[in-house]
Design goal:
Layout: H1 2-19, E1 27-35, E2 41-50, E3 53-66, E4 77-78, E5 90-96, E6 104-112, E7 117-119, E8 131-133, E9 138-144, E10 149-158, E11 161-171, E12 189-196, E13 200-208, E14 213-219, E15 229-238, E16 241-249, E17 255-264, E18 272-278, E19 285-294
Antiparallel strand pairs: 1-2, 2-3, 4-5, 5-6, 6-7, 8-9, 9-10, 10-11, 12-13, 12-19, 13-14, 14-15, 15-16, 16-17, 17-18, 18-19
Length: about 325
């Protein structure tokens, strides 16, 4: 008898869940602007409905509260497929930061067809106004990097998280040809501007794939004839630290250096990074110091060395 009661309850719960399995087309939205004690618009209450039934309410806080006159466009939303899954999502405008046309505050809700509901994404807010590239399935933001430069940032979705892949910094008045980094959007890029023993400048830049293979280049900008040198190795992730072991290969295939890197953090400029570079012949070891982490892709790294179709074919045609 007890088993029958439990079964009946389970069937009722399943039936209720099925009855509430809404489709994306069923939803409509309502925006309510909320004022603070000074009478400024400080929050947006974004509500999702099916018919007249309130399904869920989201509160988005404005970075800078605005007067009603300045907040006229705040709360406006568009329904576009932000994550390229075939279903329209919601992109909510929350105001203009100032300084550059794309410096806007945006929030989003992603439709998840498996859940039959909207999901709040990680990593979308705070990036400004972005363009969608459906072919490469990426989001692109271009902003200011000082008076004479611009920075174009590329992002891709990993589930409900928007991952920062790489940056392209370019001069406004440069006569250089436009460089495309679209062939680098298979994996996020990691760049370390550093020094060996505090005196030899180096740029270490690479990608890693799902199997833990790492490939990229090391560059010595003050060398007599500076050129990118291929580095290949592996990574081990343990307790919030990424341990990279890399070999530096000359064009003839000889190993000219061993690189060990430890990166603690989630990919921010203030992450803790330390390591060593070792000469394979003399065993002389130099500490990697003065490290600055970023995702700016050098102009000489426009094609990934890692191909998902053939992970072992590192940098070969």
């Amino acid at each position: 008898m007890k088993k029958l009661i439990l079964l009946a309850v389970a069937v009722m719960m399943w039936t209720t869940q099925q009855a509430q399995a809404y489709e994306r087309k069923d939803f409509s939205f309502k925006v309510v602007k909320i004022k603070n004690a000074d009478g400024e618009i400080a929050e947006i209450n974004f509500r999702t409905f099916v018919g007249n039934q309130l399904i869920k309410a989201y509160t988005f806080e404005l970075t800078t509260p605005l007067s009603e006159e300045l907040a006229e466009m705040v709360g406006h939303y568009s329904e576009e497929d932000l994550n390229f899954d075939g279903y329209p999502d919601v992109n909510v405008y929350l105001g203009y930061y100032g300084g550059f046309s794309t410096n806007t505050q945006q929030e989003a809700l992603l439709w998840d067809q498996k859940l039959h509901d909207f999901v709040y994404p990680e990593g979308f807010a705070g990036n400004g106004e972005m363009m969608l590239n459906a072919e490469k399935k990426c989001l692109i933001h271009t902003g200011s990097e000082g008076p004479d430069q611009r920075i174009t940032s590329y992002y891709r979705w990993h589930g409900h998280k928007l991952q920062h892949y790489l940056d392209d910094v370019w001069a406004i008045d440069s006569d250089d040809e436009d460089i495309s980094f679209l062939d680098m959007l298979n994996y996020p890029l990691q760049r370390y501007d550093a020094k060996l023993d505090g005196r030899i400048s180096v740029i270490i830049v690479f990608q890693e794939n799902e199997a833990g293979t790492v490939a990229g280049y090391i560059y010595y900008p003050k060398a007599k004839n500076p050129a990118p040198i291929k580095i290949v190795g592996s990574v081990m992730h343990q307790e919030g630290i990424n341990y990279y072991s890399l070999n530096e290969f000359q064009p003839d295939g000889k190993v000219s250096g061993f690189i060990e890197l430890q990166h603690r953090g989630d990919g921010s400029w203030d992450d803790k990074v330390e390591g060593t570079w070792t000469n394979p012949k003399t065993k002389k070891q130099m500490k990697i110091t003065d490290v600055m982490f970023g995702r700016t892709c050098p102009k000489w790294f426009t094609k990934s060395l890692l191909t998902p179709e053939d992970p072992g074919n590192i940098g070969r045609e």
